[in-house]
């Protein structure tokens, strides 16, 4: 199909790696709305945020004018252990699909955390260390973020307390043990270690926990202990900033070979991967230099962009975190047991929400059986066994490539392959055994979530 | 500790990748002894081997004079999907150990099979396809080889039947599902699908199986069905040939930066990784061009080199495969439940056995708790979570680096990091919980295995 003048895998040299993150907000005319205090509904001040988050990270969270922010040398050195990540030309997939489209994917799974989460974990751990903290707390659902953070904390000698949703703690012992290998303490949530945990256990004995509850416990643990702060792996704008390394590397690699993508695709849960991948390209679009077609892919079971409302909402179920303006299904919305745990979040990054609301990108939702079909097709020809989350992007990349086959267009498609599915084999097993169901919430289901939205201003 | 003029990860360009495998036997004065027929004890003829193995692979197995053998283009293209693998400078480990030694590792885990096994699997699948076969059969214990072969067969559209030791089939469902994702049929062994399986089930109802039994079933299945052959992931000389890609890439990367290793270390089970890594360096040593200190590391629980006998023995417990002259504990030796399943083999590649017998390399055995200590130490600073097998090499690399600390010598140490431990978290859990024991066979234990050695000549 092609002459293969482009290598299968484009690796940048170390000296070509980005030395600065890119802050897409600097180029946005319509800035994302500010975080609001959950009680007063006034914009959060830096001092208020610093009680929960590291000082430097608060600065990054609030800075919507500085386009480029230096990556500290220690972080760049850590990046060098597993980055630059390869930009892969999917020759074998193209061949199998018999499409004239040229497909590339940026693969973030070649590290032990198994995903892109490490890019922000190491930055957050670094700033915590710089501030002289003893440790950090966080929550984890499927476990990718917790694993990444435990690796980062291990590197800097920080204590790492992970509240892991109890059902995952029990059903995903392997993830738990990876975190323990990196010296993290992992507590099944809800637990007796926090007041909020105790209250929940009293009210719901035998509960298997939820991400919202784990967040509340992690925030309480961070603020209750001297020398600790809370860190979060997605949704926040600082996370998108750190994840811009994905997009910057992708752009450098493409530029090196004179390739201009037509379509850029990413899966979207809280937005960390998608935001990081598209940021520098979106910057060009915002500045009127180039145009790209961006596609956010979300599960049909948790369709915050495609069926949500653009409104202020709580970031957590416990309603202790600040309010963010975002596309949301309501913090009370409980998504069905979709196997892409990393995409089961009721809201969406406020940056991506604003860009979407401004008509700068498209969103699509897909059902999980079709996602696993794409995952398996991809694995068989490209070798990599993808995470269910990442496979949402694969699904749409294949769909777009098949459209090219119909029209004969030689479009260049780039998608983000955020991670591997080694710890998701139970989901693959269900798929193989024909036991996987699809779930699409009814309008009535969604109404319940919307009814719980806070009334602002 | 160092000025870091060497990159953290040395990646070769695609055009620097080897175009030929290197056959170390060509440079050996004392050639490995020939395979013998299990019944007649006469050297196996090509025609006899071709009943079980693919024609071209038999040719490679028997060729001990051709130094370089072309890698077919299709195999090179597949290699490009996951190779060249990085040669990593372990700056962080050096820093943690405060050693003047310079440590490098060749990392083979960045592919879905999680290990170096794919290097030979794709070659064997290719030759099966070339011969017009419908499919191949094999056995797998821990599952790395089965996974690699299923990926390779999927790529070439070959049927892949894997006999998986029943206890692993049940305890490692994730591995099984990875193989199924790649379209392989996975049968718990012993099974009712073969005569030998039926016999064993009748004699030992409720048995959890063994590698020896699985081999016998796979061989029977291959010879009973039209258009099938049997393939094997280690021990055989053809496998070492394919795995020479590891050593060739390592050497090219080192040469590129003017680095000469003093010590080269690899874990040793059947010998596929160690043989592949050291081959081109050993070639230099055999030709008198350079000298290196090679160290084979094996588990103390299965010490074929350090405590075995150099004798003709069966390659399988079922005694249906040819006899090979090798360092062996006897095909009847049953190693304890060490967590490095890939190293639980009673014998050793005949090539490595001959080299060892000629005094060209050292062998050491280590106990598993010390191996897991090294694994965890490595993971925490280098990020990669290593497989228990690979961690044997890490253990000795750290030991050697600590000796350098004492003596002040700035030795250059290279070791093979064959794979990742994502599917070995049960073993890590045991280690974390202090439930891991060490086992070293007594001389009496070994005697039983030696007593079963066949009397040749």
Describe the protein in words:
The structure is a homodimer of 457-residue chains. Chain A has 457 residues and is of the alpha/beta class. Chain A folds into 2 domains: 8-17 and 82-114 and 237-451, Rossmann fold; 20-70 and 117-230, 3-Layer(aba) Sandwich (Rossmann fold), CATH 3.40.50. The first copy, chain A, is built from 18 helices and 15 strands. In chain A, the strands form 4 sheets. In chain A, strands 1-4-5-15-10-11-14 form a 7-stranded mixed beta sheet, with helices on both faces. The model of chain A has no long low-confidence stretch (mean pLDDT 94). Chain A binds chain B through residues 7-9, 11, 13-14, 77, 80-82, 88, 91-92, 110-112, 114, 151, 154-155, 173-174, 177-178, 180-183, 376, 379-385, 420, 422-423, 425-426, 428-429, 432, and chain B through 7-9, 11, 13-14, 77, 80-82, 88, 91-92, 110-112, 114, 151, 154-155, 173-174, 177-178, 180-183, 376, 379-385, 420, 422-423, 425-426, 428-429, 432.
């Amino acid at each position: 199909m092609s002459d293969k003048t482009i290598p299968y895998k484009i690796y940048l040299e170390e000296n070509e790696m980005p030395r600065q993150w890119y802050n897409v907000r600097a180029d946005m005319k319509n800035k994302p709305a500010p975080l609001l205090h959950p009680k007063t509904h006034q914009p959060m001040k830096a001092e208020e945020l610093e009680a929960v988050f590291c000082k430097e990270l608060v600065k990054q969270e609030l800075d919507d004018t500085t386009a480029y922010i230096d990556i500290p040398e220690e972080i760049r050195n850590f990046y060098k252990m597993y980055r630059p990540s390869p930009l892969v030309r999917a020759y074998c997939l193209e061949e199998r699909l018999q499409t004239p489209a040229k497909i590339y994917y940026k693969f973030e799974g070649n590290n032990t955390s198994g995903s892109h989460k490490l890019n922000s974990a190491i930055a957050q751990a670094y700033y915590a260390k710089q501030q002289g903290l003893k440790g950090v707390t966080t929550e984890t659902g499927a476990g990718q973020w917790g694993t990444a953070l435990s690796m980062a904390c291990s590197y800097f000698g920080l204590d790492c307390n992970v509240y892991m949703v109890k059902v995952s703690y029990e059903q995903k012992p392997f993830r738990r043990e990876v975190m323990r290998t990196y010296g993290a303490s992992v507590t099944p949530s809800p637990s007796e270690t926090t007041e909020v945990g105790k209250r929940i256990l009293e009210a719901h004995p035998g509960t298997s926990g939820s991400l919202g509850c784990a967040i509340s416990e992690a925030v309480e643990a961070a603020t209750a202990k001297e020398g600790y702060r809370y860190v979060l792996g997605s949704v926040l704008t600082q996370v998108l900033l750190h994840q811009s390394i994905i997009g910057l590397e992708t752009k450098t690699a493409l530029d090196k070979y004179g390739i201009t993508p037509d379509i850029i695709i990413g899966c979207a849960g809280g937005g960390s991967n998608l935001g990081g991948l598209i940021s520098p390209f979106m910057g060009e679009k915002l500045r009127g230099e180039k145009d790209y077609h961006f596609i956010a892919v979300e599960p049909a079971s948790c369709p915050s962009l495609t069926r949500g409302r653009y409104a202020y909402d709580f970031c957590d179920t416990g309603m202790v975190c600040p309010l963010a303006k975002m596309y949301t299904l309501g913090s009370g919305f409980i998504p069905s047991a979709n196997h892409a745990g990393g995409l089961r979040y009721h809201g969406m990054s406020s940056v991506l929400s604003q860009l979407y609301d401004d008509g700068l990108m498209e969103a699509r939702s897909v059902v999980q059986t079709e996602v696993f079909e794409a995952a398996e097709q991809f694995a068989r020809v490209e070798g990599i066994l993808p995470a269910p989350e990442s496979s949402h992007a694969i699904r749409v990349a294949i769909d777009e490539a098949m459209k090219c086959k119909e029209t004969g267009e030689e479009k260049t498609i780039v998608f983000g392959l955020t991670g591997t599915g080694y710890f998701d084999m139970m989901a693959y097993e269900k798929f193989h055994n024909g036991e996987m169901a699809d779930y699409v919430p009814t309008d009535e289901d969604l109404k319940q979530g919307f009814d719980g939205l806070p009334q602002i201003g």
